Structure formats: C-alpha cells, structure tokens
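Marked as duplicate of an earlier ticket. Keeping the data here for the record.
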Amino acid sequence: PISHTVMHNLIEGIVLVTLMVLLFMADWRTTVIVSIIIPLALLFAFLCLKLAGMSANLLSLGAVDFGIIIDGAVVMVEGIFVMLDHQAHKLGMEKFNKMAKAGWIKQTGTGLGKAIFFSKLIIITSLMPIFSFQKVEGKMFSPLAFTLGFALLGALLFTLTLVPALSHILLNKNVKERHNPFVEFWNRIVAKGFGFTFRNKRLSMIIAITLLAAILFSAKFLGTEFLPTLNEGSLWVTAEMPMSTSLRESVKTTKLLKSTLETFPEVTGVLSQTGRSNDGTDPNGFGFVQFAVALKPKEEWTRKITMDQLIEEMDHKLKQFQGITYNYSQPISDNVAEAVAGFKAENGIKIFGDNLATLDRLAKEVYAQVKGIQGIKEPGIILNIGQPEVSVVLDRTRMAAFNVLPADAQAVLEMAFGGKTASILYDGERKFNIRLRYAPEYRKTEKDIAQLMVPCGDGTLIPLKSIATIEKDNGAAFIYRDNIKRYIGIKFSIRDRDLGSTIAEAQQKVSKIKLPEGYSIGWTGQFENQQRATHRLAQVVPISLIVIFFLLFILFGNIKDSLLVLANVPFALIGGIIALHVTGMNFGISAGVGMIALFGICIQNGVILISEFHQNKKDGLPNDQSIYKGVKSRTRPVVMTALMASIGLWPAALSTGIGSESQKPLAIVIIGGLISATILTLLVFPIIYDIFNRKEKVQQTIAE
C-alpha cells in the first residue's frame, strides 16, 4: 500500500508537470526536451542513492516535486525558444531555416546558464537545515533532502549540457511562437496587475508590508506539532493490568479484551501477547498485554469515521474493564515512541529523584493535574511500586536483649524461603546440591514467618516476631533510570488538539507542584523531538541564508542585488502560512521543511528577474522600461515554474493513501507559498528593485 502511494504520487506528478509544459509552450519539441529531464534526473538521483547506500522509499520519494527539479530546464528551453523565434521574425523563416544556430544557442545558453547554475546551487544550499536534522526527524526528512538534492544536481547537469544540444537538434527549423490563449491570459493578468502596482508604488508597498506583518502575526495562532500521525493501516494497543496479576487471570482478561476489539467492523484480526516480548528486551510482568490489531484498508470501511474516532470508540468499550491502563499507537510509531521516551507512549513526563515512595506521590499529583486537560488521552502512571511483598524489619535492640546475631536471623529466613545447601550428591560425574527448605505449609503467610524459630546465643529458640516487625507492603517492581537517575513516568497521548498548546497548558499546571530538593521534572516524547528540531532549525537556517547571500554576491558582484533577492523570501511565507490556516493543519517539522524548500525557489525567481533587468539595462534601456520589459518577458517562465512546482505536488497534497500524512503539510506549504511568492515577485518585487535603483534613474535623467 505504501509503494502504491509513492507510485501514484510520482506518476501523477510527472504527467501533470508534462501537461503544464505543453500548455505553456504549445510546442511538442520543447515539451519533449523538458520531459526527458525528469526520468534522467530521477535516474541520476537513484544512482547517487545507490552509491550512498540509501534506498528509494516513501520518505525519500513521497514529496519529490518534479516542478522544482525541472524548472531550470524550463527556463533554458523557454529562453532558447524565444530567442530563436525572435531571430526567425527578424530574418524570415526561409533564411532562418538555412542558418546555423549553434552560436545563438551557445550565447543564450551561456547567459541563462549562469543564473540557472546559481539558482539550483541556492536551492540545494537551502536544503542544508534538513541535512542537519538529528534522531527521528533526521531519519524522516534526510532521505527526502538527499533525493531532492541529487535530483536537482542531475537536472542541473542535464540542463547545462543536454538541453542546449537537444534544442539544437529539435529546434533547428520552423521555430515559431504560436498564438497561445493560455499564455496570453497570464500575460494579460500580470501586465494589468503590474501596471497598477507600478503606477501606485507607495500604496502597493504599504499593502504588501501590512499583509506580510498581519500574516506573520497570525502564525502565532497556528497549532504546532512534531510530525503528523502516520497512518500505518493497523493499531497497536497495550493494556497494563495491576502488577500482581497472575498469568491465569491475565490470559482470561486478555481473551475478553481481544473479543471486544474483534467486534469492530473495521478490524480484520487481533493478535495478543502476554508478558514481556520474545526478545526479552521489555521487563514486563504477566499484567502487561499487547494487541496487534489489523485493520481493513480505509476505502473498505463501511462507516464514515476517522482513525481517531475508531480509537475513541475502542477506548470507550475497553474502559468497562476496570483497573487497566490502555495505550493506543501503531506498530512502527510504538517502537519509535518507546525508543524516544523510554516507555510506551507518544508523550511523557519524567520525575527524577531518589526515593520511590516520594516519586510515586509526585506522579499521582502530576497525573491529577494533566488528566483533565483537553486533548490529553489515555494518561497513566508507569508504576515503579506495586509488587506485593512481605517486609521483615529486624529490631537491633530486641536482638541484643535476646543475644541473637543478625546473620543467624537472616540464615533462618533464607533457609525457610530460598533454601540452603546442606550437602552435595554425587552421581558418577554429575553432582547435585541438596537444599533444605521449609515445606510450603510453613511459609504461606506472614503469620508463618512470625512463627519461624531463631537461635539465641545460649542455644534456646525464640519466634522471629519477638525480634522483628513483619508486615505486608508494596515494593518496587521496576526501577527506571535515565542518565543514571531514577525516575517515574507519566504517559499520555494527544488527539483532537495540537501538541504545542496542549503541552503549554500541561506545563503551566504541572509548574504549580512544589518539588522537594533534589527532584526535577522533564518532558519527553514528541514534544522533546519538536523542541530539538526547532532549536536545530533556529541554529542552521541563519547559516544557510548567509551561505545563500555569499552565493548571490558571487553571482551579482554587489551587496545591493544580493540583499534585494533575499527580500523576496518573506513573500513565500505569506502563502505558506495562509495555506496552513485554510487547511486547518498544524505547523510541524514537515511544514517547516516545506518553508525551507520555498526559500530556494523564491530566490531563484528573484535571480531570474534581476538578471533580466540588468540585461535590459546593458542593452541601453532606461530603468523603468528595463523593468517593464523584464517583467513582460519573464512572466511565462516565472508563472510556468510556479504552476509546475505547485501542480507537481498536488497529488502529494491530496493523497489519502497509507503514509501520505508525512508529505501533506510539506506539499500544502509549498503550493500556498508558491502562489503568494509568484504574485508578489511579479507585482511587488520590481517596485523594491526600482526603489533601490532610483539613484541610477536620476543619473540617467540628468545625462539625458
């Protein structure tokens, strides 16, 4: 099913991107040239993945956007096609067909190649923060970054070599820009929009800045999460009964729980396991039971309910069995959560300290604070204490009065319950210890222990109760440690609410609890992952932007143009944030990765426009005309690359297959960001360029 999701997204993405090229270019030759780059770039990426010892899977291919990969090829082909069409108009088609075109293609390709090379390099550099991810988020998104990086590298290589060569072969004759209503529609809209914004520069800038400020402010109202819950197509349910539960009682209760789970029409089968796992890594008693619940494919569910609603129904039915703590997860998620938190739960609170009784008391206080918070489901304490035991505390004063040695009292207890080796039996080469132990009827209850006879110094015997206090107690069943410190865990899941606000409320309530000296509280699980990944992004994103700035400086040779292109980046954030608001999605690491990918794409559009403005100025056009002409000539490649990148991700954004949840926020953010970035790049960015080039404009006017 996961491979089906990947193939579905890949094939639909390739088909949609190819159709978009055909719509814009209206020429089969240019469509073929661009379309060839997709499989070649993918093959290059697969080869690099193979050499790096990595596999192609849902994580590495799930949200690869072919629009982003081939936009360099689109810009190159479009540039060459327009140049050849211009030459054909100038010379006449008959004369044009007879002339050699290698020199023209080389000249145009060299001019565009520089901008494309640096644009692709900048997009690859913008992936730097993703490569720096650690632990869970690193495992989730590094494969995507590697695949996208390798594919971009392959696309760049073929764009600078194969595309000009294919253009020379296929575009050798009869190159004519056909009447294209689709392109004219976009040209007309952009021309009208740009005409208005350029005439009303101050108003346009005020609106753009106000919109940016308002949208950035609205971002604080977005819910936050680490990663969206990945639908694995099955459930993993754990049930923790009291620690003293016998194997017979546990098996009996397990059968009841299993039959209850099997009553749901969405369930195809249930497997159960009592006690610790087969590999012995989980130190659990008979009271711990795990259920693997196999579910039907979502499209076969007869009831229109979500996975969360199904879990709620299961929990409601299972709650009729009292004294059992439940946890609902999925097989892979459960293993990941346990590896992160240290116990079976998506999120957890760890209370560190030395005394188990104090830890138990504090855990109950924390549990009471968090259990009523909206969004927190299946809260429970990972108990340390709960193993029934009989405690024998020897009284040293009374022992001294009766002249009883501690070693003698302990030897009697040891022989009564554990047995003591009295002799050895030899049977040929084999030997066996002969152990003495009290018969079961003399060691059943604490009364039997009280009647054990202990020898005194003068040889007389006295009952153990004369020198000891004997009582029933609950002792430590497990002692959990993290970084050599003892802790007790409070586990919980979060549903029907975002992670960030739920944890914030829980932290606020838990902070009211006064901890004794030497005790501390830590938060673990998804929240810990989110904090770590956010902290990593805060460190690496600024470094990535500095590296991009240096690349821009190398390209343009001046600081002003480099900063102007970077000013394009916030335009992408507007659409990305609006898209999250509209779809009701939370901002998590997946959406953050989408924002990072947007940086590179927006910078590429800025590079294309500024390069065109400079070229027009070199051709002797005044500032205003060079901007007007630049926007007009670059409308098609900018709109085309944006639409291709957006439409290439539509299958991932709309996919409902198994595993699609990890791609959705990323795809939605990129689609939304590209829409806003394209509009503002074509309508507002040229105004910013004009403002910063007024000095040249004034000098030009004086010269005239």
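See parent ticket for discussion. The chain has a mean pLDDT of 82.
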